[in-house]
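User: Predict the structure for this protein chain, please.
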Amino acid sequence: GELSDYRSHSYKQQYSDVRISLGRHVVSLWHRLGDKKGNFIPNLVKPFLEISLIKHKELRRVSLPLIMDIMECEQRASCNFKRVETEVYDKIDELITSGHGDEEYRELFQDILRPLCASSELGTSGETFITSVGRLIGLLLDYRNVSSGDGHQDRQMGCMLNLLNFYLEIEKEELYIRYIYKLAELHVKDQRFTEAGFTLLLRAKGLEWSIEPVPPEGKFSEEIEQRKVKEELYKEVND
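Assistant: Here is the predicted structure, written as structure tokens:
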């Protein structure tokens, strides 16, 4: 009845306030680190993104500037924020694919962080990066929202191709490779074996006949020589 509605509202109110104060506490602890912030970069990128992805508008407003601050610290220390950039792309992909985030988050991410970057030493390079992450969030949400039921495979493949092309465009090889295998898997599931073969060829052609190792990828769970991966992929395509 009314009493339980009131209790529920009151509980939500308190819980909401607790989340905001915890968010503010995290922000103040981070700023208190001063010169030691660098020791926690890029490791804190994921936890900060996780806080900002909690479905609470005020908490998002409080926590998103942490991402900009991490970028700035890295810029000061290394004259670029490449490590943070790579980590943000990687963790945004992981977190949004696993169900976090929504359209409101995508908008806030850009609306809050772009002006902050513009008025900081990051300038245009920071703004461009934030716009690019906003684009990625949109592509990941599209991919996630296409249910994998019958009749949706084509749309799913379309979304996956968009992600594949995005990672190729921003030269994030590791993520590009991840989506090559995902797309090939989807083709196999759909019994489109020729398309699966062509997709794997994209990866095979990018490898050298060398003994240089590559990090784990696809079905290879540990570091392996490039030529072996290339050989295995050609075998798979010809089967």
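The CA atoms of residues 107 and 134 lie 8 Å apart.
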